[in-house]
Amino acid sequence: MTDLNTAEHVKALGLQAKIASALMAKASAAVKNQALRRLADLLRENIDALQHDNAKDLARAQANGLSEPMVDRLKLTPKVLETCAQGCEQLAAMPDVIGEILGMKQMPSGIRVGQMRVPIGVFGMIFESRPNVTIEAASLSIKSGNACILRGGSEAIESNKALALLVQQALTESGLPVNAVQLVQTTDRAAVGQLITLPQYVDVIIPRGGKGLIERISAEAKVPVIKHLDGNCHTYVDEPCDIDMAVRVADNAKTQKYSPCNASESLLVARGVAGEFLPKIGAIYAAKGVEMRCCPKAKAILSQVSGANLKDATEQDWSEEYLAPIISVKVVEGVDEAIAHINHYSSHHTEAILTRDHMHAQRFLREVDSSSVMVNASTRFADGFEYGLGAEIGISTDKFHARGPVGIEGLTSLKYVVLGEGEVRT
What is the pLDDT of residue 2? Predict the structure, then answer.
């Protein structure tokens, strides 16, 4: 497409989405849930066809030299597709929050005032790599009564097109507007610039991808943005703690999967337990090929671990999102230093404390300034599906409107409603 054609294409998508959003806003819960259940069925019925289209993206990505973590994010395995289908069904089973009225209060004047939850309208989703985001965004859009315009990365274009067709089939068969979910069909980068500057059609933009993409969109958008820049997540092993539990959780938080933004990238260990804990976790990381970038105290302890891949941590390592089998390791004096370190270096995504001290746990929950804070659990749980949201459209590290995994409620707004019986203001 030429720049002019791209601009016309995106503008047409915006107009169609705006029209569809009015129909979605008044759709019944039963019809929306029917569409979600039909989408789940279609995903299961089309596994082979979807993998055929996905294989084209994978072959092109490997030919273009994409890194292994990035290629891994592209894969539409049967397990990934089943998780998407379950997400649709979980959303369908959840209560419909659209139209609910909150906090109704009687005023001295006689009027009653409350707030009603309503759809945002139209959101634009700009994402890289993972094609399953197409289903997550579409299903949340349907459940929340919105319309959405999706712009996936060029590396997943065939997969995204195939998935978007199934979404539109489910919408049509359920009597919902086909344009309630639209995919930008061009890989032209100019489409992103067009989409983020259409406030007359688009109510909010949600970018999901690399730091460079999100920084660009935040700087150039003329539409509000819900964002997170990166996922430098921390696991802090406190004194006292259950050492065996801490080893198990710290292992899972790092190695269960390296590419997600909720994998732990930094391990902080209280000095009082470092001598016992670090050799145990170090042996596991060494066996799994995880490189450890250490402070001097951590390196001295871990040097006794056979086969450990140790490097000196630089200042940059404390802020790094690796998305790879690499972790920074630091010995701290205790909970005070751990909290201070996290609040200084963290990307405010997800942090966990592993402890047996209730007061330390409570302080960590209150004082750590991140969108998800955990006690005795793996950071890998910071996910809309695991939080019971059905799916997530992203994880917001902003502090207004939506924070943490963004599910149905994050895609709604509140408007005031006033109920009276002929009252007039004096």
Answer: 60
In which residue are the tokens 């006033």 written? 418
User: Helix or strand or coil: residue 226?
Assistant: coil
Reported as type and span, the H/E element at residue 339 is helix 335-345
Cβ 89 vs Cβ 36: under 8 Å: yes
Rounded Cα–Cα distance for residues 54 and 183 (Å)? 16
pLDDT above 80 for 195 = yes
| Chain segment 90-145, per-residue pLDDT in tens | 999 999 999 999 999 999 999 999 999 999 999 999 998 889 999 999 999 999 99
Query: Please, which pLDDT band fits residue 43 given cuts at 50, 70 and 90?
Result: very high
Closest CA to 262 of 217, 215, 321: 321
| Residues 6 or more apart whose Cβ sits within 8 Å of residue 59 | none
Per residue in 149-168, pLDDT (tens digit) is 999 999 999 999 999 999 99
Q: Which two tokens stand for residue 80?
A: 């990934």
Helical residues (DSSP H) of 174-236, grouped into ranges = 190-195, 211-220
Whole-number Cα distances in Å, 283 to 244, 294, 295, 334, 391: 13, 15, 17, 23, 35
The alpha helices in 271-424, defined as continuous H runs, are: 271-287, 296-302, 335-345, 358-367
User: What gap in Å lies between CA 133 and CA 336, rounded to an integer?
Assistant: 38
Residues forming a β-bridge with 329: 267, 294
Q: What is the largest CA-CA distance in the chain?
A: 82
- Reported confidence tier of residue 359, pLDDT bands at 50, 70, 90: very high
Q: What is the DSSP letter of 125?
A: E
d(CA 22, CA 120): 11
Q: What is the mean pLDDT of residues 365-387?
A: 94
Confidence band of 402 (pLDDT split at 50, 70, 90): confident
Query: How many C-alpha atoms does 305 have within 13 Å on its Cβ side?
Result: 26
Q: Nearest to residue 241, comparing CAs of 320, 355, 152, 153?
A: 355
Beta strands 395-396 and 404-405, pairing class: antiparallel
Which token pair is 307?
A: 């086969």
- Is residue 203 within 8 Å of residue 223, measured between CB atoms? yes
Cα distance between residue 242 and residue 12, in whole Å: 58
Which of 189, 263, 217, 257 lies closest to 124, judged by CA?
217
Residues 334 and 308: their CA atoms lie apart, in Å, by 25
**Residue 199 DSSP symbol:** T
Beta strand pairing call for 372-375 and 326-332: unpaired
